[in-house]
Amino acid sequence: MRYALISDVHANLPALQAVLRDIAVRASVDATFHLGDLVGYAPWPNEVVELLAVAGVPGVAGNYDSTVATDYKHCGCQYEDPHQEELSHLSYGWTRANVSPRTKALLGALSFRIDLRPLGGHVAGPTVTLVHGNDVLNTVYVHETRPDAFLQKMGAGLGARAGDVVCFGHTHVPWHRVVDGVHYVNTGSVGRPKDGDWRAGYVLLDVTDRDVAVEIVRVEYDVEAAAQAILATELPGELADQLRRGGRLAVAK
Ligand SMILES: [Fe+2]
Question: Is 227 exposed, middle or buried (0-12, 13-18, 19+ CB in 10 A)?
């Protein structure tokens, strides 16, 4: 089985369209799943949710999805500094004011985790588990700097065994590490990367009964169209520059 895994689209329609086109031309992809955070920070929350619904792409709930769906007081995001916190509050307020009832209902219906087994478990092969954050909360950041013990606890919490694959997003930086035979895969971000590369990111996962291969893919898209669309709304204009810089702050050295 070859899975395409897309995460953290964050209402960036041009980025999502480019990624879905890239997946479509790879005829060997058997199924596509998302790992949450469909909305926030860009001006197309309803269009993104609708496109994934029409395309039949299932997925799990990110913190942004479940907080928007439940009218929670904040998005459950972590902030680098008070200024980023302010931007985040403005983005969350704009998103809550602009999602349709249908979008909220679809976001509220997303599940916490999805387990994929080859042909429903009728053939041998690893289980692939999808969550947004960790095994307990969709707000926990699983950065690459997390120690092995953290990943072991997460894998055990999800019931992963050697050979299985645990996939998650939320940090917007893709990476892959194997601990005790379990693959831990951060699928990065389609619509708001934070690794300094502005291109949309996703992961191709090839799973056989003996092996797992992980490919981190980057796709160019019209980032300027997305930036201009942000500037045409009441969303903070700084979010446009963050997209152009792949999440790197203007003052970052
Ligand atoms: Fe996110």
Answer: buried
